[in-house]
Amino acid sequence: MKLATLRVDGSTRAVRLDGDRLVDLGAADLGELLSQGGWAANAAAVDASAARTYPAEGADFAPVVPRPSKVVCVGLNYKNHIQEMGRELPQYPTLFAKFADCLIGATDEIARPEETTEFDWEVELAVVIGAPARRARGAEAEAAIAGFTVLNDITCRDWQFRTREWLQGKMWDSSTPVGPYVVTPDELPGGVRPELEVRLSVDGEVMQHDNTGDLLFDPVALVEYVSTVVRLHPGDIIATGTPGGVGHARDPKRYLTGGERVVTEIQGIGRLENTVAEESAA
């Protein structure tokens, strides 16, 4: 299934893609849907002929989960990106966080803060959690994965490297597109360890292109690792890291200055199409 959170009449609805229509699933958003026991069977069982539907074309997508309890991000998880950033291969996942206020929808404007001059892009496969997980292992960790979505881990590099901790470069308001769909593992090659092409372009120029099969720590391993540290709840998001091609590692370095069209896409899941805007100082 392909699931999303749609903005409708000043509110939001959880929907399922059915051809060229989005079928209302009876929940306010995917966070609410995923918190229900048996959510997958219930979502699949909704009769498109009896439910309210909306056109998929021109849909106004909210972040797939508008208010996750946590967004855990992984740095340095593709070999080529680790090398371009001058790092050694890590023994353990490098973790940091984002917050719900960072997230925007699939076609929303990316707010570029006036405080940065080094605004960078990062295409990422993101895991969406569909069941509570604490110290999950093996089959339990696999079963906790509701599906996968697309995330652009926009980063203020000058703030990221002010200190040894990355959080202040990653947590800017209204900066992180995520969506448009959550795709369940059964629809993807590789299932819970999907092997999908990822790509990011800026104004039509391809900047990043790789395959999620090259992840050092795959999605199941990340669920195991993160759930050892903190309880994962339905709707939580784990961003699995970015491949090589970020602007900060280029020679000369390249950054987003405002007005660019950034397209972030993953095979079989969908694409984010966002314009970089200047953030208001208000």
UniProtKB/TrEMBL annotation:
Keywords for this protein: Hydrolase, Metal-binding, Pyruvate
GO biological process per UniProt: carboxylic acid metabolic process
Source organism, top-level taxon: Bacteria
Pfam assignment, any one: FAA_hydrolase
Gene Ontology MF annotations: hydrolase activity; isomerase activity; metal ion binding
Fumarylacetoacetase-like C-terminal domain span: 70-276
Keyword flag Translocase: no
InterPro entries named among the record's database cross-references: FAH (IPR051121), Fumarylacetoacetase-like_C (IPR011234), Fumarylacetoacetase_C_sf (IPR036663)
Family designation: Belongs to the FAH family.
Name the record gives this protein: Acylpyruvate hydrolase
Species assigned in the record: Thermomonospora echinospora
